[in-house]
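worker-3 :: picked Amino acid ABC transporter substrate-binding protein (PAAT family)
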Amino acid sequence: MDRRRFLAAACMAGGSSAVQGGNQAALEVLSHYDYPPFLTGPGTGLSYELLDWLHSELQLSAELLLLPRRRLDMRLTESGWQGFVPWVNPIWFGDTQRRRFGWSEALMNDEDLVLHRPGLNLDYRGPESLRGLLVGGVTGHVYADIEPDVQAGRTRREDAISTELSLRKLMLGRVDVVFLSRSGLPWWAQQLPDLLRSVQVAATPRQRFQRFLLLSPHMPARSRELLLEGVAQMHQSSRWRQILARYGLSPL
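worker-3 :: tokens ->
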């Protein structure tokens, strides 16, 4: 995966290690989400909108670095790492007790949808509902819930190199099912105008969850306070509501 960086050129108010000229070092923002709505093109997407909002509202300097999930996990274990990871959940990082990392209030509610080809009599109730079907995946993505059935040959999986290609295969009837986040559906519906006419969405989602900021335990106290207070205020921000609306999303 190519690394793309974004720098919100402002200094952090207090608490961070100094750099040349007396400014504060930018926080490193890590993300493995290289797909919509979080990344929609070079330098665009909801992750960049988040950093821009934090810069303008909190005068926070932050740099976005896209990494594969394994490299992101390794970075989190490095001593002295100071930054945060947006759009994630404690369960995905083995921190259900929230003791390993700091966590903000929820940024958004989300869920994984089960999209399927028309005419398929699918009453989705869980992984067992997909047995005998061909699931269209994305290379490198892990679908832990269906993996035992895939390994046992009860469910088939055929990957594409991108979400777009996987969706196009579903639209053509070349796969039976594709998983897609609800947060990404409005953007993809704009990019693929025939999408919602060509597929059906199962009434029951694959899973429901909330997305948070994961905060480094080594983050300076002032930076941590700014982020926690900022997220708490974000949902009342008219500007943030406008940002979400551009992606077809609603605030909490």
